Amino acid sequence: MADIRRPARKRAVEASTNYFGQINPVPISALAGQARRKTRVNKWWLAMPTLAAFFLFAVILFSNLKQNLANSASDIFREISAIRTNSANLEISRTIQPLETINAEIKKMARQTDYYGLRPLAYLGGIIIPSLGKLPQAMEDASLLSDFSVSLAKNISYLETNALNLMASQQGERLIFTLNNIKRDADNAEKLALRLSSVARIFGKNYNLANPALPYLKDFLGGLISLLEQPKDQHILLILQNPSEMRPAGGFIGSFGDLTLNRGSLKDIHIDDIYNADRQLKAKLIPPKELQGVTTKWGARDANWFFDFPTSAKKVISLLEQSDLYQSKSAQFEGAIAINTNVLKTVFEIIGPVKLEKYGLEINNNNFLEEIQREVEVGRDKKPGQNPKRILSALTPLIMEKLQSLDANQKKSLMEKVKAHLTNKDIMLYFKDWKIQNFFEKTGIAGDMLRLPKNFSGDYLAVVNANVGGGKSDAFVNQKIILESSIESDGLVTNELSITKTHSGQNEEDWWYRLPNKTYMKIMVPENSRLISVKGNDKAAVADKITYSREYKYDADLANIEKSADLLSIFKTWLGSEFGKNYFGTWFTTPAGKTKTFSVQYESGVKLNIRDNMRYEFIFEKQSGANETLEYSITAPPGYYWKESDGNIFKYSAESPKAREKIELTLIKA
Questions:
Q1: Residue 224: HSE in the Cβ half-sphere, 13 Å Cα cutoff
Q2: Would you say 178 and 155 are in contact if contact means Cβ atoms under 8 Å apart?
Q3: Which residue blocks in 474-615 are alpha helix, DSSP H?
């Protein structure tokens, strides 16, 4: 069998040497394969410079694109920051122009990228630099976000100047339509902003494009639209507060209005005397002890007894709803708007004088308070069975008629002044719907009392006056508040507070302005504050003790506050707690034509952890309608100074303090 087998081919071999110096045979066919592979490799090496040049060009191109976009983005984000500030200050109309500028810039960038074909190249560049692949979608999102932001600002600005006209001219459906458009734009803007924020890291910074106010705005719009779209009538309470007779929430409620809305249109405005509702109130509530010398029954007229306006508004609404005036028709108020005479003065400044033919009067911004007060106190309607506030009912439709006929410039001027009144607590808002109320509190127009955080490092002050039996004398009382604080080395803050009142109503024709300004004053300070001394206050006028029968009930909030109070006889002062604060309560009377000063020394309840670069915050909250000035100074502890003053004493003064003054300071080790 071996003889008939085909002879094996002799394989050509080429010797090679292995690691140990031995000769290894290598097939010639393998050498041929290596030659072919070498040829292919040479071809790839020839192509590599071209590919490298292309990718190098792409990287340079995308790097330049990234840098150009980063520079433009920085400018845009800077504008967004300014826009956010204007939005926080309720100056929406001022955001339209910068928003349109940003919109034009973004669209210009998009056109440039399309012109140079950079969008498809960006996708390709994303293979090398993954983040670049997100740029085309980011550009589209930025353009859409800009469109929605401009639309949002324009619609809000439109409602600022036209909402009242739409309601009064029975165009409520258009009002609701615009509100829905605003909500749509806010929804879309928030989604795009969140998506863009995740892409913003392309620019090497952690930008947050989502406006923190958007969620609250969306909730507010949802609640408001839901309220306005209901087919039944909606009642809004208008609380008219008169700061000529100060009360904790802003002024005595002599009159009130019932605003009836139906699907966004103002169906009716009815102005009434608060005593008319109180006479029909069957509920028997024990009034605050400070009022028991002038009234034995608590009513809606005295229910704004709380510095925290939402609490006062709830009490006023509750007592009105319990009155047969509203209970008989099962009417309830969805919310309340409080305004004081400062707002009415502004309205007359804009609309001009209004003639009341029936009363033989011409009301203007200089005389409206005196003339209306005189008519209410001694006018033709001051008779048994008559409504002394009827003059307000006659005046209201004439004011509304003039408001609807304002030109564009007058509307703009009115809106600017209304914003100032909102930030000054001349206008305060409360609604039962938590979504609406939460937005009011976040934007600082609810008149709520600030709750201090647990880790608060600073001090707090509010001076709250309640006129009890002092007529309308607050119209001529000026209050000067001076607080001198000092931080001790152990972290305690000692305070010297002086309050000077000047009563300039001694020469007024009407007796209610010449009465002594008799005030129950509460000084609101942080919890655990300790009273050291008091000077210049008056002994409380003790009324005959009233024994209430079982049918009289205590209001729960009022009872909790009064139970917390202890009389410190040596100081003629009550020490109590209210809404997370301590208060020093005392009586202080200023005769007409006189100036008197009340002073108190106390330790703040906040003990500081003194250290280099420690942040310190002083907060002052103003009482609505108060005519006052503020002077504040604080001395740094030994071995430290204030960065803001470059010295150991920082001073601040305000002729007319804002509703909530916040002074932020930095302590530096010397």
A1: 22
A2: yes
A3: 511-514, 556-563
Burial of 356 (0-12, 13-18, 19+ CB in 10 A): middle
> How far apart (Å, rounded) are the C-alpha atoms in residues 457 and 606?
7
Tell how far CA 70 is from the center of its chain: 33
Query: In 3D, which of 390, 395, 429 has the Cα closest to residue 276?
Result: 390
* The pair of three-digit structure tokens given for residue 599, joined into one six-digit string: 């002073």
CB 202 within 8 A of CB 134: yes
Among residues 358, 371, 298, 344, the alpha carbon closest in space to that of 557 is found at 298
Task: Name the phi and psi angles at 463, rounded to 5.
Answer: -110, 115
Provide the b/e sequence for 532-551 (b: ≥16 CB within 10 Å): eebeebeebeeeeeeeeeee
Specify the pairing of strand 581-590 against strand 573-578. Answer: antiparallel
Which pLDDT band holds residue 31 (cuts at 50, 70, 90)? Answer: very low
Cα end-to-end distance, the chain, whole Å: 111
- 238-247 in b/e burial notation, b at 16+ Cβ within 10 A? bbbbbbbbbb
| pTM for the full predicted model | 0.82
The number of residues in the chain equals 670
**Cα dihedral value 230, 221, 152, 154, nearest 10:** 60
CB distance 179 to 186 below 8 Å: no
Q: Which residue has the tokens 């960006």?
A: 122
**Among 499, 467, 494, 496, which residue's Cα sits nearest to residue 480?**
499
Maximum Cα–Cα distance across the chain:
151
DSSP for 578-605, written as a single string = ETTEEEEEEEEEE-TT-EEEEEEEEE-S
- With a CB cutoff of 8 Å and minimum separation 6, the contacts of 354 are 348, 362, 363, 364, 395, 398, 399, 402
Work out the number of other CB atoms within 10 angstroms of the CB of residue 556: 8
pLDDT tens, residue by residue, 299-346: 999 999 999 999 999 999 999 999 999 999 889 999 999 999 999 999
